[in-house]
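Q: My labmate handed me this sequence with no annotations at all. I'd like to see what the chain might look like in three dimensions before we decide whether it's worth expressing. Could you predict it?
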Amino acid sequence: MNDLYTTAINTQKATVQWMDVLADNLTNVYTPGFRENKVTFKTFLGGAVIDNHVKNVGQGKSTPGTSNENLFFEGSGYFMLRSPDGNVQYTRLGEFTFDSEGVYRAKNGATVQGYILNDKGEIMSGTKSISADLYEETALKGGALSVPTTNIKLWIDPNNGKFLGKYDEWEIKNDGTIYGKADGGNRSVPLYKIATANFHNPNGLYELKDGLFIETSESGKPVIGRGEIRSGLLEQANTDFKANMSDYQQAKVQMELVNALIKSNKDLLQSAMEMATQ
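A: Here is what I predict for the chain of 278 residues:
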């Protein structure tokens, strides 16, 4: 059986890790798209240790973005991105903009993924279309839809200054459909549907960096994301400020108690050594 000193040392280490996680949450409470980290503990004869780190996958509140190009996903899932090396990534942070060539990109340079639509608003898979009803039914069942995504590109024709050479402006609807608008807004044509994905075990995703994830064997394969997309907004961090402050205060008290126990053990050991040398 481990003695009290070993128990205290192990608990001290776990408490430091806990405080680091809480401090990171509190530091990023105003960082758009940040996912709150949570820890769980397990105990054994040698004290408490960190058992697991998990992400809070709950919904964060919306906040105004910097332009209508920014997106807020209200629902379950992630926006799909494709990195410059071709890998698919997932994020809740819709801080997207169209670059000078009209390509829809995230701040890290990855391209936002979508589906090409026909003039009826149906997703095109090669030369075949998928009805909106089938897509909705598949989403409701939490299933996968094996349709290749594509980069969203609204290039501007240098000859007439119009998007795709035809449209005066664009608009993103709540279902994620991007429309090209012409004739003073009287003509509206569906062009792309923004791709979203969800996972049966989102805590199994691997975080490449803050708010940017890739799938793993633990997360499982992506299924269709479910929710609404709102233009001109961003998602705030989903950190519970009060809960984290309360936990941080608790961690401080725990650290003070553990440090006192360690000091007492050191003092007792020092006294024992002095007595032994007399």
